[in-house]
Amino acid sequence: MPVKIRLQRHGKKNKPFYWIVAADSRSKRDGRYLEKLGTYNPNTNPATIDLDIDGTVQWLQNGAQPTDTAKNLLSYKGVLLKNHLVGGVRKGALTEEQAEAKFTAWLEEKAGKISGKEGALAQAQVAAAAKALEAEKAVNEARIAANTPAPVVEDVEEVAATAGDSEE
Which residues pair with 36 in a beta bridge? Predict the structure, then answer.
């Protein structure tokens, strides 16, 4: 039975949410699956991917083929790297401890990149909110200035002087 690791669509219209599943390649896209390996939510920024790494590696070791999109997600989460390292351990090129150390170092580096992106997104959001607030203040000040009548200050002496000029 040919097994594929692929995405199974769930969620509302225009709000997709995917399950990452191991399924028979002949079954329907949203049909029967063998095992649910994780979830993928592209609606968040950055996208949220929850994945059972060890279970996915086991399926890859047993010959499951990921689809193109699933392969990108597995690569992003480090499953393909772990699969590669497990193959090295099996061949004797690495020890289990060396492979685990390499994988955890890669995970820490990846987590640093992701947190950097989240920080940049948060700063951009704060800057956009501040810019919008400044624009709104400028619009409100212009509106207040347009609606405020000009103060009429008449000096009694000026009125009398203009009245005396008109008599002459």
Answer: 21
Please tell me the CATH superfamily of domain 3-95, with its number. Answer: Ribosomal protein S16 (3.30.1320.10)
CA angle 159, 165, 166 (to 5 degrees): 95
The 10s digit of each residue's pLDDT in 73-114 is 999 999 999 999 999 998 888 888 999 999 999 999 998 988
> For the chain, what are the domain ranges?
3-95
**61-67-69 Cα angle (round to 5):** 120
Alpha-carbon distance values, 73 to 15, 30, 168 (Å): 19, 18, 94
Q: Is pLDDT above 70 for 154?
A: no
77: left (phi over 0), alpha (psi -120 to 50) or beta: alpha
% residues pLDDT > 70 (the chain): 89
User: Contact at 8 Å (CB) between 122 and 115?
Assistant: no
